Amino acid sequence: MQSGFEFVNKNSQTVLSLSKLADIPISYHREIPKNVTVKEVCIKKERTGEWYASFAVEDKKEPANPANSDRHVGTDIGILKHVHDTDGRAIGSLDLKVHFLYAVLASLSAFPFLALGI
């Protein structure tokens, strides 16, 4: 059971009630499903002054098995190698120095042809 927050309907407006802080009217980017439990709320203020709330939820039902699961590959970002996949392949680290040099030169307009990749 969560503590510290709850959703309340006040005057047909959904309100995020943060205990000991405030009641904040909210509008959803997308609805929170009825069959999940909200476990955590993260409140963030952007540089623009706008406030956002992110909700971590828990769903008890098992995810469906994907069709053609033998055709799916999982990837992970690594430290020694850039990308690893579930088939055992790895892609080496990227050399971004060359791309950075092209971007700097192109931004200086000294060599505008570099921005075109010529």
UniProtKB/TrEMBL annotation:
Which superkingdom? Archaea
Q: What is this protein called?
A: Putative transposase
What broad taxonomic lineage does this protein's source fall under? Archaea, Methanobacteriati, Methanobacteriota, Stenosarchaea group, Halobacteria
